[in-house]
Amino acid sequence: MGDTGTYGVRAARLTGVRAAVPGHRHTAAAGRRAKPRWYLPAVLGVDAGVTAASAALVLSRTGQPHPGLSALVAMATWVAVRALRHRYRQDELGESRGALPVLHDWLILVAALAVLSVGTAQTPEPYPALAALAPGLVCTLVCRRWIHRHLTSARRVAQAVDRVLVVGEPGVLDAAVQRLASRTDHPYAVVGTVVIGTGTAGAAAAPTGAGDRLDPELDGRGAGHRVVDAARRHHAALVLLAPGARLTGDRLRELCWALHDAGLDVALTPGLVETSVKRLAATSVAGLTVLRVEPPLGRGAQAALKSAVDRCGAALGLLLLAPVLLLLVVLIRLDSPGPALYRQVRVGRDQAAFTMWKFRSMVTDADRRKEDLAGRNECDGLMFKMRRDPRVTRVGRFLRRTSLDELPQLVNVLKGDMSLVGPRPPLPDEVAAYDATALRRLRVRPGMTGLWQVSGRSDLSWDETIQLDLQYVDNWSFSSDLDVMSRTLRAVVDGRGAY
Fold first, then answer.
1. Which of 39, 79, 125, 310 could be cross-linked to 93 through a Cys-Cys bond (beta carbons 3.0 to 4.6 Å apart)?
2. What is the DSSP annotation of 332-382?
3. Which stretches within 390-477 are classed as H helix?
4. Is the pTM of this model over 0.85?
5. Mean pLDDT of the chain
6. Closest residue by Cα to residue 414 from 301, 313, 300
7. What is the predicted pLDDT for the residue at 415?
8. So what's the pLDDT on residue 391?
9. H or E element in which residue 42 lies
C-alpha cells in the first residue's frame, strides 16, 4: 500500500535543504519542528471575533436587552469552553478536521449560556440567541478544516514533524516503519532505527542509512544508554518502541525509565493497524496494562440514525432531482441508441446479490466487449478500469466526470440495498476472487459514496482501495458518514480519478 520512497524524500528534507513554508520555526536541537505560530491567533481570532460580532449584531437587530454585554459574555464563554477542552494546545491545533468535537463544544456553550441566563434572570429569546451563536460554530468548523489542510500540506514537505527513532526487533520494526512510510499526513518522520537482535531489517527500516543495532543480552540499563545515545546522534525528539519477544515486561519498563530520565518522549505501538482510537480503552489488570478493543458499531442508535438518513435522503433526493434526472434521460437517448438506464448485478451486504441502477454511460454492447479489452486494464487488482475506455459515449464521459451516472442508485438506497455512504459495490466475479480480508468489506451495505470515492477513486491501487474500505467497516460512526458526505462534493468538482 505504501511507498517507502516517500519517507526517503521526507528524511532527506529533514537533514538537507528544506522547502520553505512561511511562518514555520525549526527547532533542530530538540528534534521537533514547531507548528506555524499563526495557528493559535487565527483560531482564537475566529472563535472570539465571530462569536462577539454575530451575537452583538443579531441581538441588537432583534431588540434583545444588553446586546453588547451579552456578546461579550458569549465570546468569553465560548473561548473558555474551547480552552477547557484543550482546543488551543499546540498538540491539538490542526490535528483533526472532524466536526463532532466542535459540535460538542458548541452544545456545551449553549447549555452554559442557558444556565447563566436563568441564574441572572436575563433570559433572551431562544431563536435569536441560537441565530447569534450559529455563525461562531460554522466559522470555527471552517477554520478547523483550513488549518488541518495547511498542516497536512506542510507535513508532506517535512515541516511541523517530529524526528522519530524507532526501536524494535527486525520484523515488527520494519512493519512499523513501513506503515509510517505509507502516509505523510502525520507528525512522525523516521530519522533512524535501533534493531534488537541479529536479524536483518528491511530497506524501509533505515530511511537515513544503516540502522543501529542493540545486543539483546544487554540489561535494561545498558540498553537504555545505547538507545539514548542513538536518539541524541539522530537529534530525535521521540523514541517509538515496537515491542517483540525480546522487548516486553521489565525490559520495556527499564528502557522507558532511561529514555524519560534523558528527557526524551516515548511512544509505544501495540501493532494494531487502522483501528480508531475511539474503539480503544486502556486499563490495568494485576499491574498489566491492557488495551481493550471495542467491536465495530453495527447496531444501536447510530445504525438506526444512518438507516433513517439513508431512506429520507434518498426520497428527498429523487424528489428534488427529478427534473435533472429527466433531462439526463433525454440527453442519453439523443446521444446514442439504447436505454437511458443500465442495470447490473452487484454484491451487497453479507454477499447478498442485488440489481444496481445507473445511467448508461457506455455503448449497449459494453459488457460483451470487456473481454477484448482485458489486456488494457489499468487497475492492479480485481477491478477493470481504463482512462480512455472506447466503450464510453460522449455524454457518458460527462456523466462519469461529474458522477451523475450514479444518481439512479438513490432508488437502491431507498429500497435498502445500498446506503448513501459505504464501500463500492463489487461485481460477482470480483467477489469470487476475494480473499478473507477483502470479504470483510461486505459486512456493511455498499454506498453511493465512500472513502474510496473521496480519496482518489480509480487513481488508487487495489490495496489502497481495500484498506480504505476496511478502515470504514471497522471504524464506522455516523459522524464519519457526515465527514465523507461533506468531502464528496469537493471530490465530484475535482473529478480526480473519475473515468
1. 39
2. HHHHSSS-SEEEEEEE-GGG-EEEEEEE--B-TTHHHHTGGGGGG---SSS
3. 394-402, 409-415, 428-432, 436-439, 451-454, 462-475
4. no
5. 82
6. 313
7. 93
8. 83
9. helix 39-45
